[in-house]
Amino acid sequence: MKATQRDFANLAPRAAQTMRVFFLCGTDDASVQDAAFRIASLLPDAGERVELTGAELKRDPVRLGDEARSTSLFGDTRHIWVRCSGDEVYDAVENLIGGDVAPCPVIIQAANASDKARTAKLLEKREDALVAMFYPPDLASVTASVRQMADAAGAPMDRELAQRIAAAVGSIPVWQRPKLPNWRSIWMPRPSGRARPRWRPLRRWEPKPKRMALPHW
Predict the structure, then answer these.
(1) Which of 88, 95, 143, 197 is the most buried if burial means most Cβ atoms within 10 Å?
(2) pTM of the entire structure?
(3) DSSP state, 20?
(4) Looking at the domain that runs over 2-134, which CATH code has it been given?
(5) What are the pLDDT digits (tens) for 72-126?
């Protein structure tokens, strides 16, 4: 199955429930990683995460299928997260989908790849796989994201202010939201009568010299 950047948000919940392989690619690495975290959060029973790289799977293409069909040491479920570039994992994916046993969910975060790549063509017509490509977001979509984040923080803002912030910061993926400052402290006006806090510059700490005890004669 193939998805575009516009319909990914609507297809992601259903795809996470029914599909096993997710090939996420495009020219915007932040949006690709955002989509990978989105799929991982929607998995019905994500369990343990096993991380692999494209270089590892290029050297050993059979490893992906073995990891996807093996069980965790603790008997729990698992999902596999692959970070690769281009078509590094083509042979590994070909081996993965050629098995008779259904694998655990496999999320492939492919940098420098497009929906025209060999791996994407291998998966796009399968009912148990999702191929999605992402481009850098435009100013309107980033502005909408800024307003949604401000509303969630309890500090609604108008479109003009949100657009200025969006133009300054560019894209704001989900995995960077915890690093953003508190919108309330930036935007919400202070209640009347409350003094503005004063910040004192930090002084360099210097240890006090130790006094030597004089001997008693």
Answers:
(1) 88
(2) 0.68
(3) S
(4) 3.40.50.300
(5) 666 678 999 999 999 999 999 999 998 888 889 999 999 889 889 999 999 999 9
